[in-house]
Amino acid sequence: TQHFIGKAHGKIILIGEHAVVYGEPAIALPFKAAPVEVSIEKDTGPVSVSSDYYTGPLEDAPGKLENIKVLLFEIGKELGQTINNLFIKITSHIPPERGMGSSAAVSTALIRALFQYFNVQLNEEQLLAYIDISEKIVHGNPSGIDARVTSSDAPIFYKKNQFFEPFPINISGYLIVADTGKKGQTSHAVADVATLFNDDYEKTTKLIQNIGERAIRAKLAIIHNDLAALGTLLSQTHELLKELTVSDESLDHLVDTALKAGALGAKLTGGGRGGCMIALAQSERYAMVIKNKLIEQGAINTWVHALEGE
Ligand code: PMV
């Protein structure tokens, strides 16, 4: 049987999380070390799926796969096809609920595979519109960054509800991503930053602006291949995020561990309060040393991601 394959990858926020909620810019990176593949083949009978959560007829799938049902319905309608007789296999290497964009990446790969199956050209605008349908079901009010980065090969500099600007990576370094093993608590962290704003408007405004400035300088460091400057900006931003109260002991411990093991910089990534951190290394050899230290110090999962060549 012929397989129709759609691919996508995870995302990480390099810098600017939380401040981006208040209109500052941020940078998100495609995270190729965490790929997703959806394979579709012809089958008999109703649509069935195989995934980490569930294997069986799509009709009986748990609520978690609701977005997939809706996507198939909408795409079928658009293409004038009854979607039946398909077997959909989802293979994701993105851990869920870690702020890595797993839902957007699965949607991207599924949409790409379906359009291939029906032999219809898919443009970027259509792709983003379909991912948005799915993300609204999964996340309610998505910022749209996951949709763009999981389907793109370029880093994206963005301001919420204003612009998404892809830019070239011109820097040769390695990012180590480490999972604390604690589910990230993005919504709590975002709510607590809002409270901090009420309690001390001036101080919080200053922190947010300082993070935004560093996101702008990080983009320049990436364009000018200044790895050391990028590292410093990442570490400084972790300190600012700590002051915003969105870090926690597990993240701080892994950040310290990475810096002691020779990282050029390190910070939490995404919502904070658990979830993941990132560290920057100048070579693959350093990256492996840092990765091993992070595992020794409690990271339950790590990835090494080459920045070059994106
Ligand atoms: O959890 P993630 O990686 O999708 O990132 C959340 C980023 C925040 O800035 C904290 C929230 C947001 O909506 O931008």
What does this structure look like?
The longest helix is centred in the C-terminal third of the chain and has 23 residues. The model has no long low-confidence stretch (mean pLDDT 94). Strands 1, 2, 3, 4, 5, 6 and 7 form a seven-stranded mixed β-sheet that branches. This protein has a four-stranded antiparallel β-sheet with strand order 9-10-8-11. The protein starts with a strand and ends with a strand. With 310 residues, it is an alpha+beta fold. The chain has nine helices and eleven strands. The chain has two domains: 163 residues, Ribosomal Protein S5, domain 2; 133 residues, GHMP kinase, C-terminal domain (Alpha-Beta Plaits). The protein is globular and about 60 Å long. Helix 1 runs antiparallel to helix 3 and helix 2 packs across helix 3. The chain binds (3R)-3-hydroxy-3-methyl-5-(phosphonooxy)pentanoic acid (PMV). The site of (3R)-3-hydroxy-3-methyl-5-(phosphonooxy)pentanoic acid has 12 residues, from helix 5.
List the helices and strands and how they pair.
Elements: E1 4-15, E2 26-42, E3 48-50, E4 55-57, H1 66-79, E5 86-92, H2 102-117, H3 124-139, H4 145-150, E6 156-159, E7 163-166, E8 174-179, H5 186-199, H6 201-223, H7 227-243, H8 249-260, E9 265-269, E10 276-281, H9 284-296, E11 301-306
Parallel strand pairs: 3-5
Antiparallel strand pairs: 1-2, 2-5, 2-6, 3-4, 6-7, 8-10, 8-11, 9-10
Bound molecules: (3R)-3-hydroxy-3-methyl-5-(phosphonooxy)pentanoic acid.
Distance between the termini: 33 Å
Strand coverage percent: 15-25%
**Could you tell me the mean pLDDT?**
94
- Overall morphology: globular
Low-confidence stretches: none
